[in-house]
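ok so i was messing around last nite and threw this chain in just to see what happens. nothing serious, just curious
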Amino acid sequence: PVRTTAYTMAAQASEGSRSGDDSVQVLGSDGASGSVDSTVLYRLDATRATEVWKNLGPNYVLSLIRPSARTCIRSVFTDHTMVEAVTTAWHDMEAGVTACLKERVEPHGILILDFQLREVRLDATLQAAVTAKVSAQQVDERQRFELSTARQQAEITRVQALATADAQQILACGGELQMVEQADG
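result:
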């Protein structure tokens, strides 16, 4: 067939193209590990169908797409720490794997239409560390906000105290207090 086809590698058997856990085990540049669920969207180049059949046969998904995708995923993950991979570098990861797949697969007559990272699961120890880091960052942000609010409140209190002191000094010198309305704006 020359229509778009999906090949999914996932931990849950009901989601993947193969039975059992077919997720890709990866290592980040920091040595941390995880597993990746992903989908490759591809289609056979209609103008090269005979060539593909002759060179790769009918099982080109298992002989070319699956091993190429797994190799590209592992390769791209080694360029980033696992924390980056699951947070800030998500789109870079997808783009890197897509480029790698196109380079490996398209010369054989199969077009890569898209690569989708579906899920990245970190090992339990790293997940706990990421959760602790995020929690610590949230506490830090809350404390910065509270400090900023306290400083603003202190400035308001200082200005009010100066105004009261000025009023008392005016009265002590024989002056009178008058209410003055100030126009907005």
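not much to say yet. The first helix runs from residue 49 to 55.
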